[in-house]
Amino acid sequence: MPPPLARVLLSLAPLLALGCAPPDDRGPSGDPAATDDAQRRPWLEDRPWRPRPDRPLPGDPLPGDPLPGDPLPGEEEPTPTDTGAPAEDTGGGIGSGEAPAGIPYGYWGLNGYVSASGLADVSDRLRAGTFQVANESPTWTVRTLLPMVRDAGMTVTLRMAGDHGSYTTSGGSFDLEAWKDRVDLWAGSGVQAFIDDGTLVGHMILDDIHNFSGADPTGDQLDEMARYSKEVLPGLMTFVRCQASTMPEPTAGVYVHLDASVNQYQSGDGEIEGYVAEELAAATALDLGIINGLNIADGGDGSSGQPGWRTGRYAMSADEIREYGTLLAAMPGVGMFLNWEYDGDEAWSDGTIGADYFDQPALQAALVELGGIVAAVERTPLLRE
């Protein structure tokens, strides 16, 4: 459980004493889309060529491919069996009672890298030990994705109920019962074995909770979602992508079932020291665990000169990654660190593929350095007792 607010704020005193200048708007002038490629992305000319596993190599499983032991048509689908080994404590709070390891570090998405060779690549090059992905197909998840993650020595968190359209009323409001129907699809799927062995360490029960055109979910609804998730998927940590300071307050004043929320810092959120203090205080007040991370694709202050995923936004520079990330890693109570995002498929506002930008030596070195800083900090288990 997070420490009392007074002790938490006292623990921040050394960080607040560091001080840093507020981010300024130093983005390039003019419309990035109107410049040519050499002006927009001068780093491409000197970037060394390196093969990237955008597609699975021969022998890698593809979505829907049968794996050894999969049933033939007409046969009953087997359920993965629990080996009986104690679950490893790898970020979800499940474990044998030993001292917690360092904070798990990774990325959102990994599009273009979710294959055996791709996961090995990002684990080796970017120090990624975990990642978050949306997948609502129990069959492919249990037969292909989770065995692949386990074989890579990584962990994963999943959004398992689909996107907003799957649980939105005709009036645009969040529909709790429709969301529960989506979670029910995972009952008896065989996913429990991967929760028990520590491969699947989290369920993102809702993404971007304030994006419904009608009524957003209330704090009580979010807590009920977490309770129901644990009923269907026992032992699985629950979280939402929403910074603690904008989380709705439940009737009880604190969350009882929801384990954590995500603070994904971008320069537009203000000075990093103030952000750390505000989000820590909010998480403590709501009794929520903390998942921190950087919006590396869209949260820069413009100093990188690289247009981001959205028009008018900028990717973070290597210096920003180090500065912001170091302070976020030092926040007391952090249980996981996920950056948004490292993506090998999706084009940004100026046509750049995000992974190409972050594969520059200086950017890659900053991400690896941050991973080492994060891994050296003792994590706080997120799953409630």
Q: What does this protein look like?
A:
The chain is of the alpha/beta class. The protein has a single domain, classed as Alpha-Beta Barrel (TIM Barrel), CATH 3.20.20.80. The protein has twelve helices and eight strands. It has an eight-stranded parallel beta barrel with strand order 1-2-3-4-5-6-7-8, surrounded by five helices. Helix 10 packs parallel to helix 12. The radius of gyration is 21 Å and the shape is globular. The N terminus is likely disordered.
What topology, given as strand order, has the largest sheet? 1-2-3-4-5-6-7-8
**CATH C-level name:** Alpha Beta
Radius of gyration: 21 Å
What form results from the Cα inertia axes?
A: globular
Q: What is the H level of CATH, i.e. the homologous superfamily? A: Glycosidases
Counting DSSP H or I runs of 4 or more residues, the number of helices is 12
The profile of the biggest β sheet is: 8 strands, parallel, barrel
The secondary-structure class comes to alpha/beta
Distance between the termini: 9 Å
Which whole number gives the mean pLDDT? 82
- List segments where confidence is low: pLDDT < 50 over at least 5 consecutive residues: 1-99
Strand content: 5-15%
> Which series of helices and strands comes N to C?
HHHEHEHEHHEHEEHEHEHH
Per DSSP E runs of 2 or more residues, the count of β-strands stands at 8
CATH topology heading:
TIM Barrel
Any key phrases for this structure?
385 residues, alpha/beta, TIM Barrel, eight-stranded parallel β-barrel, disordered N terminus
